[in-house]
Design goal:
alpha/beta; TIM Barrel; 294 residues
Length: 294
């Protein structure tokens, strides 16, 4: 029965109308997944395995740092560094994402407030946090975010939430209500990975947004052909017509940076500028001891 359940679970994950025959590898993968979930629960209780790195976001106009994206990391006691792609999907499926997401919001707000208390240049910086699709389905999400801002006395203008367009469009009515609550408080809202979902200009007009974030797949291909460049141009123009600014993610080449700036894209993020870095390096940057760069 256990083997049949494992096969059924994998068939469901593969999509509708799929048949999976049990094999030994399936059982090994299921055991590994259960162990990873158990380890993550323990990590959340221990309080010393999870941490945030921060990837700087730059102005394409003058190369100044305008903010940071908080990115969760897991220093597993046996496996070493475990990246989000390995454990976030499991956290989504198990429901751990609610507690994990709350921790990220709390830690990001606490850290930004700490920097603002120590460094004057941090006062206008933006902290971006990612909201997963299942997190976004939580009715109390807006209340939770606003309570964290209040707890750490962080101005709402210093927090930006990034939500994928698919997550927003799947719950359109609820999305409008939730985003209106955040916007009314002063929190900024960005559509993440724009271009990978199914929203249209008419759809986007319904939502209280501040920013579009161009998916890195478009940025990487933009200089390969005139057609790809025109796709990015259309996204930038769409955003500007809606009164939104634009961030391009995954910028890795100077040619991409220059083309994006020429198209009117305001901000960039990627390894050309800086990889995700530690809290300590950012504090050295605020102190004027180092420049942030790749």
């Amino acid at each position: 029965i256990q083997n049949a359940n494992v096969a059924m679970h994998q068939a469901k994950e593969s999509g509708r109308d799929r048949i999976k025959v049990f094999n030994k590898r399936m059982l090994e993968e299921a055991v590994q997944a259960m162990q990873l979930e158990s380890d993550l629960r323990a990590a959340m209780l221990s309080g010393n395995e999870l941490y945030l790195d921060y990837q700087p976001i730059y102005s394409l106009k003058d190369h100044s740092v305008v903010g940071f994206e908080a990115l969760i990391r897991w220093n597993h006691p046996r496996r070493g560094l475990v990246m989000p792609g390995e454990f976030i999907p499991m956290a989504e499926e198990s429901g751990l994402i609610f507690e994990l997401g709350s921790w990220v919001v709390s830690e990001a707000c606490r850290q930004m407030k700490s920097w603002q208390g120590s460094y004057e240049s941090a006062s206008e910086m933006m902290m971006s946090i990612n909201i997963s699709p299942r997190q976004f389905s939580q009715p109390a999400l807006a209340d939770n975010i606003l309570s964290k801002l209040s707890e750490f006395d962080l101005p709402a203008r210093n927090l930006k939430v990034e939500i994928t367009e698919t997550a927003i469009m799947e719950r359109a009515k609820q999305s409008v209500d939730m985003l209106n609550r955040l916007k009314a408080a002063g929190v900024l809202v960005s559509i993440d990975d724009f271009g990978t979902g199914y929203s249209s200009m008419s759809n986007l007009q319904e939502f209280p947004l501040d920013q579009l974030k161009i998916d890195l797949s478009f940025v990487r291909k933009m200089n390969e052909s005139s057609e790809n460049l025109e796709i990015v141009r259309a996204i930038v123009n769409l955003a500007h017509n809606l009164g939104l600014n634009v961030v391009a993610e995954g910028v890795e080449e100077i040619e991409q940076q220059d083309a994006l700036r020429d198209l009117g894209c305001e901000y960039g993020q990627g390894y050309l500028f800086s990889k995700p870095i530690s809290r300590m390096k950012i504090e050295s940057f605020f102190k004027g001891e180092i420049e942030l760069g790749a």
